[in-house]
Design goal:
With 247 residues, this protein is α/β, with parallel strands linked by helices. The protein has one domain: 5'-nuclease (Rossmann fold, 3-Layer(aba) Sandwich), CATH 3.40.50. Helix content is 31%, strand content 23%. The longest helix has 16 residues. It is globular, with a radius of gyration of 22 Å.
């Protein structure tokens, strides 16, 4: 007569392992940049620049602060942006930053700036050309729906209410999806939060930013070895404890 192994009996009674929830994070790059560049709730001119020292920010690290390691997995972080064509120095700084993000595992989707003819609202009433960012809002909205089968939880980093229709469509097509709205620091979007559902708002704090600064330089690693280094733009400040002089 055969006997049962007690260890086997215990193992057979163990519940199946529950897979972690897949998390996607989509970041509105310019919405975030402008929040860091000029603090909307500033009480004086000096206070407006209080978050500029966090521009050299790792979005994969930042997004991981809002993921529960035991039940969730940060699968993809996508940064949506456009490069300014009218200012070479700004364009180069922005490209440098995007290259650093890519080196840290952040994907990016590129929009464009277009010339837009607008009329002065002051006394002159003259018309003039002004660059206007195009495609980014549509690119984010498209990604929300296009990648729906690839995530269980979506973190949307923006305060732009233009994304309300996309979130509404997602919740209509996939009511099981969880959507979190993470407005850039100092900003809010009641319309998006309302559309995403109860308890959908996450709050970005200065402590989150402080803990998510990119190294300076950022190593570019290929085949297990460092092949290049990316230094932050000289004009971008860093929190004092992160400052390091380039070689």
């Amino acid at each position: 007569m055969s006997t049962l192994n007690p260890t086997t009996m215990v193992m057979n009674k163990m519940p199946p392992k529950v897979p972690k929830r897949r998390v996607y994070a989509l970041i509105d790059g310019f919405n975030m940049y402008h929040a860091l560049d000029c603090f909307d709730a500033a009480t004086n001119d000096q206070d407006k620049t209080r978050f500029q020292k966090y521009k050299w920010l790792c979005f994969r690290t930042l997004m991981s602060r809002f993921v529960k390691e035991d039940t969730e997995e940060l699968v993809k972080v996508v940064f949506f942006t456009a490069f300014p064509y009218w200012n070479e120095a700004k364009r180069l700084r922005h490209q440098t930053y995007v290259s650093a993000l890519k080196a840290r595992g952040v994907e990016y989707v590129k929009g464009e700036f277009k010339r837009s003819r607008i009329r002065c609202r002051a006394t002159c009433k003259e018309e003039f050309d002004s660059p206007e960012e195009k495609q980014t809002d549509v690119n984010i909205a498209t990604a929300i729906i296009q990648f729906a089968s690839e995530y269980d939880t979506l973190i949307l980093v923006t305060a732009d209410s233009d994304q309300v229709p996309a979130v509404r469509l997602l919740k209509s097509l996939h009511p099981e999806k969880v959507v979190y709205i993470l407005p850039p620091i100092g900003r809010n979007s009641k319309e998006l939060v309302k559309e995403a559902g109860r308890n959908s708002r996450k709050i970005m704090s200065e402590q989150h930013l402080e803990a998510s600064i990119l190294p300076n330089p950022v190593d570019v690693v290929r085949d297990g070895r460092v092949t290049a280094q990316i230094w932050k733009p000289d004009s971008w400040p860093l929190p004092e404890r992160f400052q390091a002089a380039p070689p």
